[in-house]
Amino acid sequence: MRAFGWVALMVLAGCAVAEPPGAELYDALCAGCHGVSGKGDGVIAGELPVAPADLTRLSASNGGVFPRERAMAWIHGYPDRYSARVMPEFGPLLDGETVMVVAEDGTRVPTPKSLVLIVSYLESLQEG
Ligand code: HEC
Questions:
Q1: Ligand 1, CB within 6 Å, residue ranges
Q2: What pLDDT, in 10s, does the model give residues 14-28?
């Protein structure tokens, strides 16, 4: 029994270490609305006037290609700054260390590292 306990502990520790980058940020900032799974079933989802998007279907609804730039822009908040939306803008919260991201048109855009991590995590959640 004791041996089993240790094995379970090691498996749990392994899970914690193996958590993909960006998951922690996602859990802290996004899961309340979009759900831990990303399917839009967060604890406050039912109280919002607009249902949070199912984030596991971003590729599926974009012809099978993950819409990386669109997701980054949306989360940051720039393109919809002046339009009504339920989801808050995360640009100010994600400010900090930047990394270079090569955009679809080849330009290099300094982008907050935490935004890149979150969007990579979203990419890992995509289903068929
Ligand atoms: C307060 C609730 C709330 C929080 C917190 C939230 N979202 Fe959203 N999100 C929404 C809602 C509602 C929509 C649907 C569009 C709208 O805002 O009207 C949406 C839409 C989106 C979309 C657009 C999907 C598409 O169809 O292109 C993405 C991507 C997204 N959210 C990612 C995130 C990420 C990543 C975070 C955390 C950094 C986050 N959201 C935090 C409520 C939220």
A1: 29-30, 32-34, 48, 50, 52-53, 55, 71, 74-75, 85-88, 90, 118, 122
A2: 555 567 789 999 999
